[in-house]
Amino acid sequence: MTLETLNLILLGGIVLGALYALMATGLALVWTTLGIFNFAHGTFIALGAYIAWQIASTEASGAGLLAGAAVSIIGMFVIGMLVYYLLIKPFERSPDIVVKSVITTLAGATILENVINLVWGPRNRQLSPLLGGDMSLFGITISRNEMAVVALALVILAALGVFLQRAPLGRAMRAVAQNREAAQLMGIDVERLYAIAFGLSAALAALAGILIGSTRFMNPSMGSDPLMKALIVVIFGGIARFTGPIYAAFIVGLLEAVMTYLVGLYWSPTVLFAIMIVVLVAKPEGLFGRYRKSV
Question: What percentage of the chain reaches a pLDDT higher than 90?
């Protein structure tokens, strides 16, 4: 392996890690706040990308990618809240909410994917890049667009971290995630925060979809693979800390880049899942999680 090849693998892993961090953070937000896994998250990624493409490519509007992204993020925030109210809230007090949420979010994902197929068709599409051209880094030529994707993803994650740590709404969401009953006693509107958490998760999925769509082709089922990678990342990093999935995302991204080089694109997901199983057995709370013993 030459130094140039190593640099290409590392840079490719960083780009993947930035995308996975956005996907996994949105998924973990719902997981930590509501205690459920949203199987519609992958479809949120695809729908967000297609909405942005529709606005950006409509000649009559004269709008570009920025306008498309803005409409997509706002629209997906609203859609995320609607999904909560329609598919999750009716079963919130059910003792088997976890099982029912799996069924309802899978059904929601299927419906939304069929909507994408119906509206835009199965044909591949692609968003325009954030930046055009190439640049030289560490002696190799890389895409400016990929560097812009990494930079933008890091800025978004930093802004989300500040929001959760400093903003009153963000602190309220953390309080609900830690102890719902105590948060209710403090006067926090838990159901409203659940809806907002779903909306923020969908907005982050839209951002991830837009960044993916600017680097590769889009199709209606484009969210399936990111959903599985986001799941691996969340399991790797744990959900006890906001930064856990972010660190894990870059580890998974680098592992995938290395495995793709060593064993090929076909076998790299198998290796990732094998590593995930080892992590679950050795450290069930995740690499960056904290074990909490129940009494």
Answer: 38
> From CA 286, how far away is CA 104, in angstroms rounded?
27
Is pLDDT larger for residue 139 or for residue 100? 100
Cβ atoms 47, 116 nearer than 8 A: yes
Q: By C-alpha distance, which of 203, 226, 196 is closest to 72? A: 203
Which tokens hold the place of 260? 């793709």
144-157 pLDDT tens trace: 888 999 999 999 99
| Structural domains counted in the chain | 1
Whether 293 is in a domain gets the answer: no
Q: Tell me which residue range forms the domain holding 159.
A: 18-222
pLDDT in tens, 227-268: 888 888 888 877 767 778 888 899 999 998 888 888 877 788
Distance CA 135, CA 131 (A): 11
Nearest by Cα to 35 from 250, 205, 198: 198
Domain presence at residue 206: yes
Q: Which residues contact 37 (CB under 8 A, 6 or more apart)?
A: 27, 30, 31, 98, 101, 102, 105, 231
Closest CA to 34 of 127, 116, 100: 100
* 195 in any annotated domain: yes
Residue 293 clears pLDDT 60, i.e. is over it: no
Q: Is residue 240 part of a domain?
A: no
Sign of CA pseudo-dihedral 165, 228, 144, 68: negative
